[in-house]
Specification:
heterodimer; A: five-stranded antiparallel sheet; 2 helices; B: four-stranded antiparallel sheet; globular
Chain lengths: 181, 253
């Protein structure tokens, strides 16, 4: 078992093109010099990913994609979930609730159903009552787990599958990490 | 009676799925069952079908039963797929190697019509009438070769043979939106640019909103919704063509 996870780790390392075996002080060919900041994976356990919950309205911190359906406006909070807004009056948009969906980036809505990515899973949520959103369906591992951050030409800490599911990335000060893409 | 309602609903859905042949491509019908995403979206719904653009394939789900998406088709493409924009009977898929155009008259079984690799594109595409507008973001964040950022106009009259007809330099473009005679281009930290497209082939820069951070935009009939690192701003369009701030949802740290 231990051997197997070891092989898995090497596999992941190869996938993301870790610069192992290269002098760590030399930037990879064509890469900029490391600035002192890189991306670090944010991990969650499978159990945490499965917890989709409706919470009280929350402040916007790192808004991502947006989606409009009728009078509703949906704002993705990168990696965290979706702000549900009543936008019947665009002069006075009202936050109704926050749907916690770890690893969320994308969404689409048809009728009372919200389709969203939840880390590697694909979930269908019933939003008929925006204050009590229900998970109708979960399709496990519908999406590939990210092996690198959604930017090119960046340094990042290599993903270690043993630490859990990657639900986002944070830019932090670090020593030059092994992975670059 | 129930059947009648169902039939009416179906007819309505069908009409909506056809895109209503309106020129306001990203406009939002308040009665629509289906919503609208920004140009950076990877998910899109057309009728009973949900498209998910994964990095290396187009995944098609049938959602006729809303609570039970069924995988209908998986279309492998090259890597680097980023965005999807459905327009009339076609899907425009933006990738960091170019753009793919699919026919989706049969929504659950799209057929590849053409791929457009004349540019190393990275960013999204929106379409109105016979023209696709594509932003290409140069620099390290997007492509290995740090080249210029541009706003390109591609003639898609013949979906099988898209042609580049206009290109102009941009600073750092992200999402974009089109509505009637206006084209909105998000320039990240540098704000949003508004182009006049009375002549759809030659966007003319009219206004720059420099005091916001703009990442993506959705034009709706009620407001223009712009989002970015500073939060979300909604604008109303004044008769003069200028934008008036209707409301803001600011970032709280």
């Amino acid at each position: 078992m231990k051997k197997l996870s070891y092989i898995g780790l090497i596999g992941i390392g190869l996938l993301v093109g870790c610069q192992s075996g290269v002098d760590v002080n030399e930037p990879p060919a064509g890469a900029p010099t490391f600035s002192g900041e890189g991306y670090r994976p944010i991990y969650a356990s499978e159990n945490e990913v499965n917890q989709v919950t409706t919470e009280a309205p929350q402040p916007l911190k790192k808004p991502g994609k947006i989606y409009v359906r009728g009078n509703y406006l949906f704002i993705n909070e990168q990696g965290k979930g979706i702000h549900l807004i009543d936008n019947a009056d665009p002069r006075n948009p009202k936050k109704m609730s926050f749907i916690k969906i770890l690893g969320n980036v994308d969404m689409a809505v048809k009728g009372n159903f919200l389709y969203a990515d939840n880390g590697p899973d694909f979930v269908v949520l019933n939003i008929a009552d925006p204050t009590q959103v229900k998970v109708e369906k979960r399709i496990k591992n519908a999406f590939p787990s990210p092996a690198y951050p959604p930017y090119n030409q960046t340094y990042f800490e290599c993903v270690e599958a043993s630490k859990g599911v990657v639900v986002g990335w944070e830019k932090v000060k670090m020593n030059r990490p092994k992975c670059f893409r | 009676m129930k059947n009648f309602t169902l039939a009416t609903l179906c007819a309505l859905c069908f009409a909506l799925a056809l895109g209503c042949a309106t020129d306001k491509s990203a406009d939002v019908n308040p009665n629509s069952q289906t919503g609208t995403g920004g140009s950076m979206a990877r998910f899109a719904i057309v009728g009973d079908v949900l498209y998910c653009v994964l990095p290396d394939k187009l995944q098609v789900y049938n959602i006729a039963t809303s609570t039970n998406p069924v995988s209908a088709k998986t279309i492998p493409l090259t890597v680097g797929l980023e965005t999807i924009f459905p327009y009339k009977n076609a899907l425009f898929i933006g990738a960091n190697a170019g753009m793919y155009i699919f026919d989706n008259q049969q929504p659950d079984s799209p057929v590849l019509l053409s791929s457009y690799f004349h540019v190393q594109s990275c960013d999204p595409v929106v379409v109105q009438g016979n023209y696709a507008y594509v932003t290409l973001r140069g620099g390290s964040g997007c492509r290995r070769m740090a080249t210029a950022s541009t706003l390109d106009v591609v003639d898609v009259t013949d979906l099988k043979s898209p042609k580049l007809i206009n290109s102009q330099t941009m600073e750092s473009p992200y999402g974009l939106g089109v509505s009637g005679e206006q084209l909105f281009v998000c320039e990240g930290d540098r704000g949003m640019k508004i182009f006049d497209i009375k002549d759809p082939k030659q966007p003319q820069l009219k206004h720059v909103i420099g005091d916001i951070k703009a990442y993506d935009v959705i034009p709706t009939s009620k407001s223009l919704i712009v989002t970015g690192d500073g939060g979300l701003v909604q604008y109303g369009l004044q008769d003069s063509g200028k934008l008036e701030v209707l409301s803001k949802l600011a970032i709280e740290l």
